[in-house]
Amino acid sequence: MKILLVEDDAKTANFIVKGLKQSGFRVEHSDNGVDGLFRGTTENFDVAVIDIMLPKLDGFALVEELRKRKIRVPIIFLSAKSSVDSRIKGLQKGGDDYLVKPFAFSELLARIQALLRRSSAVTEPTTLSVGDLQIELLSHKVFRGGTKIDIQPLEYVLLEYLMRNAGKVVSKTMIMENVWEYNFDPQTNIVEARICRLRDKIDRPFKTNLIHTVRGFGYVLEEKK
After folding, report:
1. What is the pLDDT of residues 176-220, one digit of tens each?
2. What angle do CA 139, 136, 168 make, to 5 degrees?
3. pLDDT at position 183, please?
């Protein structure tokens, strides 16, 4: 799942980005309201976390503009202001939740998960399945044939990306850009190494393989008949 974070304080942003990635989310970060508005209107996100005091365009104006453009992504406001008036204004502008700084990351994560549960009831399934492989998007749990599989956060993000593109061949470059969000040297074996680890958990203990190499092109996750 993909989260938009709009936060201009570098320390706070790094704290949130690190925690979300360790929890298995993909994160796009903007440090000002104008860039946040551009991302929010040109990319699809499952949740947006937006600070109120932002340069160029404040959080209230940003969210108001998103709602005017019919962007219905669930939004959590972040603010140092704890007044009732500020909370009310945030909800009136189109926010779904309001979290006062400083906060524990566990509370932010719980609020994000609550919004995902609420929105998924209408807009998106809570599980992805390919054959007997299933992942639960809200709890980040993975099962194959009813057996729970323990995987690391980055392995989960990679698996979710493959499952969202089930039946489609994805290249090394596509994987690096969408899972790691960095441009690596094309000669690096980081993708092959992570795919190998994922196969050790997803395929090798079972009778059939789901992750397949398409030589010269990349990888595909599918159940072959």
Report:
1. 877 876 655 556 788 899 999 999 999 999 999 999 999 988 999
2. 135
3. 59
For the chain, the 3-state helix, strand and coil shares in percent, each to the nearest 5, are 40, 20, 40
Q: Cα dist. 69→35, 63, 66, 200 in Å?
A: 16, 10, 5, 45
Domain segments of the chain as ranges: 2-120, 127-221
What torsion do the CA atoms of 190, 192, 195, 200 make, to the nearest 10 degrees? -110
- Second-level CATH architecture of 127-221: Orthogonal Bundle (1.10)
Could you tell me which CATH class the domain 2-120 is placed in?
alpha beta
DSSP, collapsed to helix, strand or coil, labels residue 223 as: coil
Hey, what are 83's tokens?
């007044």
Q: What average pLDDT does this structure show over 111-132? A: 79
User: Is the distance from CB of 39 to CB of 62 less than 8 angstroms?
Assistant: no
